[in-house]
Write a structure and sequence with these properties.
This protein is an all-alpha fold. The protein has 17 helices and no strands.
Length: 355
């Protein structure tokens, strides 16, 4: 528990420093420490930590011994493992280097387009620290390329955006679902659109449309590949139901939408459209094929940048403090819930390193 508590406390401290009068040079030092601390927390974990880490260790050994793989992996990940094994057979070292790459790309990308740098990462870690950074190696790498792709969407560099998406999808094919993000810059969601999307998502949440989704998968390009991936992920019940994360997403959407009239920035509107559309599909997939919910995470992670814009444009310090307290409370609750849940506890408590 202590490493998690120390890490969360440090993030909260950094967020409050960011809205203070602290010199920019010291904030950059804090950012570097934040980067090192995150890589250390994620990269130095033992292979027994994380739901999927054991599966990755098993496939690592299979590749090392030239055995048939018991799981399906994208070509990019397989090439990465085989290249690493030219130099070392140490899986823990592999975990560390992947963590350094995944976290490093995210920390590199955020300052390039976010008005604040700590808030987006605090939001991201609240949702995805344990589930992806400390478990799902391939999608954590894909999300890192998603972070980078946002920059090229903002600067309207479509060829580079496409290239980044394609490279990231070689680690996890789900990143291809983020391709429409580039074209959401012209979407403006008004109160009517917002109400319809939220109301319809609530209805879809209790309606099972999995049969329709399977038919759609059959028509899309490379649908057979998608079907194999979805089938591999499914474990019995395909409905995820309501989770702790859904209600905050809904509250955040309302919060972001309200400030959409206050924050006069074109990219904020772009991010807002992405977040609300992501929320719609999150509810939709949660009622049908829950495993597809991971497709929406690329859109929902934009919430951290929306938070950054709102706090940056808030004129009163009391408002900034209140919003940071709200984000801090959520981060504490979400991370603690993630590691203390019954099935998660053996994977994250106690924290173990490979030293």
């Amino acid at each position: 528990m202590i490493p998690y508590i120390a890490y969360i406390t440090f993030i909260i401290f950094c967020c409050f420093c960011e809205i203070s009068t602290m010199p920019a040079s010291l904030k950059r030092v804090l950012y570097a420490v934040f980067l090192v601390a995150t890589v250390a927390l994620v990269g130095f974990r033992d292979s027994s930590m994380g739901f999927d880490t054991i599966t990755y260790e098993k496939s690592f050994g299979e590749l090392l011994e030239n055995k048939p793989l018991s799981d399906n992996f994208e070509i990019g990940y397989l090439v990465l493992v085989e290249f690493f094994q030219l130099f070392s057979s140490n899986f823990n070292l592999f975990l560390f280097l992947v963590a350094a790459a995944s976290v490093g790309i995210k920390f590199y990308a955020v300052p390039r387009y976010s008005p604040l740098i700590f808030i987006p990462l605090a939001y991201y870690m609240a949702y995805y620290l344990t589930e992806y950074e400390m478990s799902a190696i391939r999608q954590s790498l894909a999300i890192a390329f998603g972070f980078l792709a946002i920059y090229y969407a903002k600067t309207r560099k479509l060829p580079v955006f496409i290239a980044v998406i394609l490279i990231g999808s070689m680690f996890h094919v789900s990143l291809l679902f983020f391709f429409p993000f580039y074209f959401l810059n012209r979407v403006r969601i008004n109160i009517t659109h917002f109400a319809i999307l939220i109301a319809s998502s609530a209805v879809l949440f209790v309606v099972d449309l999995s049969s329709i989704i399977w038919k759609v998968i059959g028509f899309i390009p490379a649908g057979s590949i998608v079907a194999v991936k979805v089938t591999a992920y499914l474990e019995g019940n395909t409905q995820t139901g309501l989770t702790l994360g859904h209600l905050p997403y809904l509250l955040f959407a309302s919060f972001f939408f309200y400030y959409g009239r206050v924050v006069k920035d074109e990219f904020f509107q772009h991010l807002l459209a992405a977040f609300i559309i992501g929320l719609f599909f999150s509810f939709f997939f949660s009622s049908t094929l829950g495993v597809l919910n991971r497709l929406t995470y690329y859109y929902l992670m934009t919430g951290g940048f929306l938070f950054a814009y709102i706090i940056h444009y808030s004129r009163h310090n009391i408002n900034k403090i209140a919003y940071l307290l709200m984000l801090s409370a959520f981060m504490i609750l979400k991370i603690m819930e993630s590691i203390l849940a019954g099935e998660a506890r053996p994977h994250y408590i106690p924290y173990q390193t490979f030293f």
